[in-house]
Amino acid sequence: MAVTDEAIEKIKAMIVAGELRPGDRLPREADLAERLGLSRNSLREAVKALSLIRVLDVRQGDGTYVTSLAPTLLLDALSFIVDFHRDDTVLEFFEVRRILEPAATALAAQRMSDADIEGLRKVLTSLPDDATIDELVANDLEFHHRIAAGAGNTLLCSLIDSLSGPTTRARIWRGLTQAGAVEKTREQHAAILAAVATHQPELARSWATIHVAGVEEWLHLMIENNVRTIRNTVP
């Protein structure tokens, strides 16, 4: 194991064991390096790495602190990474969404309050009949975020939000090229809302699966058609 990796593991072990808790300030660099049996340089590199993924917060002139370790904070790094996906891997994001979102929607059908359901309804009804593709996609993102938040699990919500960005371009592409895509999206959102509002988790799960799988299937066909076209045009 590389020296820096060893240092990261030792700091992580302190956090997992409860020796360092969210909000705690790390001991002085020299003291912590001696305590962990590390060089100050390897400890410094470990702190830098852990600060990049939002586990530690280095405050100039004040010291280094353990962050809140909240899922939304830690998953910021995931959001940054997935923004660099390639077009041919976007289907993998949809596969993960198809696993996570139906589960979140079923939980939302059990846990969302009347006020949250009304808020979800307002999101759906706020979309004008002559909405642009940009407005549709923004509305879609907000709708799915509220469903994920309604599941009552911050980690699940953060994961779903992190996966939404890489699939945005596919949503726009579908809206521009597939006949009836806008109407189908609105109808399926309305069906999901109805299932959540009447607290029918399995029905909500089914509609969420249909909704995400529909976009996934369309994208798969588009990618296949593009590959076929390229093959047919290459001498």
Describe the secondary-structure layout.
Blueprint: H1 3-16, H2 29-36, H3 40-52, E1 56-59, E2 63-66, H4 71-74, H5 76-82, H6 90-111, H7 114-125, H8 133-150, H9 154-177, H10 181-197, H11 201-233
Antiparallel strand pairs: 1-2
Helix pairs in contact: 1-3, 5-9, 6-8, 6-9, 6-10, 6-11, 7-8, 7-10, 8-9, 10-11
Instruction: Just name the CATH architecture of the largest domain.
Output: Up-down Bundle
Low-confidence stretches: 80-87, 227-235
Give the CATH superfamily of the largest domain. GntR ligand-binding domain-like
Strand order of the largest sheet: 1-2
The number of helical segments is 11
Shape descriptor: elongated
Largest sheet properties: 2 strands, antiparallel
CATH class of the largest domain: Mainly Alpha
User: How are helices and strands ordered from N to C?
Assistant: HHHEEHHHHHHHH
Distance separating the two termini: 49 Å
Domain HTH gntR-type: 1-69
Keywords: DNA-binding, Transcription, Transcription regulation
Protein name: GntR family transcriptional regulator
InterPro entries: GntR_C, TF_FadR/GntR_C, Tscrpt_reg_HTH_GntR, WH-like_DNA-bd_sf, WH_DNA-bd_sf
